[in-house]
């Protein structure tokens, strides 16, 4: 998707060709940019780059910096400060656009490069990446948290995102940590929640020690039955909350069914993983607040804390 404010075709360098960097490089190449070079620190990254960015040369960091008009710093948050210093030491040309993909940071972390005359922006795709070409396709439905130092940076960041098919959402520098916390809570903690639910459901089907066979279906034993049982429910719940917000809440907490919650706590506490009940209790307490549950239910959840 092009934009009337789209920059001229740029020579792009990617540091480095991990899951995120490769997907963004593929999307920028599809938009007509010249993804000319990249760094690849592992055999997996090299293989990924050869397959999906065959025209890009694998170079060291100074080589990528020297030949790029747009630098994408697609490295983990913890590595970003060191990479910024390395880019600055490589002598980038003033006017080079440099964008990082870290969710937790705005443009302040790129200040050493801004002092050298580079245009600095933060482009964080609010998406999970698995390392295949599906990642690139998902960018078309993704929002990007963008942050920049001025209106010029805003326009450049928004244009690049639109060209990749995404939707730019401006996040103030001071709010990047809150933005990142919200995404981590909604996506990463969701995985922890569903993992716990699958553990409990598997125990209910097979017995805590796995002494019963996985399940009885028309096709015979099925070790993935817990996923099959929970999957449609979780997907429907996710769609409902995204559409309806807190009104989508159902179940014993929404009904203020204290006795059911008491039995849940006891059953979960009997499982080998003694911490599983802690997650249930903490989230039930949040749901109780959101649904206006009775004092009795609140006290029950506090009593088991």
From TrEMBL:
Residues covered by the DUF2520 domain: 143-286
Parts of the chain that traverse the membrane: none
Name of one Pfam family that matches: DUF2520
InterPro entries tied to this protein: 6-PGluconate_DH-like_C_sf, DUF2520, NAD(P)-bd_dom_sf, OxRdtase/DH_put_Rossmann_dom, TM1727-like_C_sf
Signal sequence segment: none
Putative oxidoreductase/dehydrogenase Rossmann-like domain span: 3-125
Superkingdom, natural source: Bacteria
PANTHER family: CONSERVED HYPOTHETICAL ALANINE AND LEUCINE RICH PROTEIN
Protein name: Oxidoreductase
Protein species of origin: Gordonia sihwensis NBRC 108236
């Amino acid at each position: 998707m092009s934009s009337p404010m789209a920059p001229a075709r740029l020579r792009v360098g990617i540091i480095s060709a991990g899951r995120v960097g490769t997907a963004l490089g593929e999307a920028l190449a599809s938009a007509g940019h010249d993804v000319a070079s990249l760094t690849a620190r592992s055999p997996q990254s090299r293989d990924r780059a050869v397959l999906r960015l065959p025209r890009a040369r694998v170079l060291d960091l100074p080589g990528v910096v020297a030949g790029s008009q747009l630098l994408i710093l697609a490295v983990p948050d913890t590595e970003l400060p060191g990479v910024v210093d390395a880019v600055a030491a490589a002598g980038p040309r003033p006017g080079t656009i440099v964008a990082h993909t870290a969710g937790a940071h705005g443009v302040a972390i790129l200040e050493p490069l801004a002092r050298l005359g580079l245009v600095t922006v933060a482009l964080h795709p609010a998406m999970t990446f698995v390392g295949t070409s599906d990642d690139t396709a998902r960018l078309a439905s993704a929002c990007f948290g963008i942050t920049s130092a001025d209106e010029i940076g805003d326009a450049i960041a928004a244009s690049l995102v639109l060209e990749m098919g995404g939707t730019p959402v401006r996040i103030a520098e001071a709010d990047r940590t809150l933005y990142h916390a919200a995404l981590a809570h909604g996506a990463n903690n969701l995985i922890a929640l569903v993992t716990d639910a699958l553990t409990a459901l598997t125990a209910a089907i097979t017995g805590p020690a796995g002494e019963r066979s996985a399940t009885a279906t028309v096709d015979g034993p099925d070790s993935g039955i817990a996923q099959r049982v929970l999957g449609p429910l979780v997907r429907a719940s996710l769609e409902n909350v995204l559409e309806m917000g807190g009104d989508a809440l159902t179940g014993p907490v929404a009904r203020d069914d204290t006795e059911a919650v008491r039995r849940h706590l006891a059953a979960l506490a009997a499982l080998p993983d003694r911490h599983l009940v802690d997650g249930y209790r903490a989230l039930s307490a949040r749901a109780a607040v959101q649904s206006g549950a009775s004092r009795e239910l609140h006290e029950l959840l506090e009593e088991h804390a």
